[in-house]
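Our example pasted here:


***
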Amino acid sequence: MVLTWNGRDDTVACVRSLAHSTEVTICVIVVDNGSFDGTEEAVRSCGVALTFIQNGANLGFSRGNNVGIDVAMQWGANAVLVLNNDTTVEPTTICRLASTLRDTPTAGACSPVVRYATDPGRIWFAGAPYVASHSHAGRASIYELGAPLPQEPFRVDRAVGAAMMVRREVVESVGVFADELFFLYEDVDWSLRMRAAGWDVLLDPGATIAHKVAASQEGTPVTPTTAYYGTRNDLELGRRHGGLSRLRALRREVGCAVVHLAGVRRARRGARLASLRATVIGWRDYRRGRFGPAG
């Protein structure tokens, strides 16, 4: 299930990589959040059998993906692979993920190793810790820092929305992405809800995808958009899943906001002031309980 928004060429490449999947039967669903760059025409004519769903508007990552997940469940899918459109999939990846879920009855979701498309030797995601009392839920694990990967699938705190296969029973019992988060941290929230319901979340080191990191944000780590949603939703995760006392929750909130404010330095020079303002607005909207799309 591939969600896209104005990513025509990346989406076509992603879909074509899925067509080369081996040892597994798949149905490809592409959900378009109202692209205006010719995505629909290009994907429909790319030569791959698929179902194309046009949302007609940008529903965000959460709700946009949920549209495709709902269709997959209606079709009777045993599992659904949520996949970013700026990824390409190795031929054996889907089979590996499906086999891991089949062989591990306690596993609710499984992600592959995600490598940088521009530098396949580097790992972008291989599981990430989540500690509720910490000020920021980051993506780094020891494997991104160079530690050797285990040989077998292993438990992680969270899967990643760029590529996560989720079994049907999880969708039926836990639900889907939280619509109100709209964009960013919805994968962490879903993973934590799975774990709270007794499911394991796994990383399969034998499965790999390549990811053009932040392609929808033109490759920039921080933009006004990511600053706003990242701040607001990271704060909300602490509230939902932290289980902290009032004082510790306040400390976590302030620390988290400071981390995001400091992160503005990674924005492009001309976008730093706008990103700083977006961070402050994200913090404000969190405190006011305003969720969904910005504004």
Remarks:
- Residues 10 and 86 are 5 Å apart (CA to CA).
- The first strand starts at residue 2 and ends at 4.
- The beta strands are 2-4, 29-32, 51-54, 79-84, 87-89, 107-116, 119-125, 154-155, 163-167, 200-211.
- DSSP finds nine helices and ten strands in the chain.
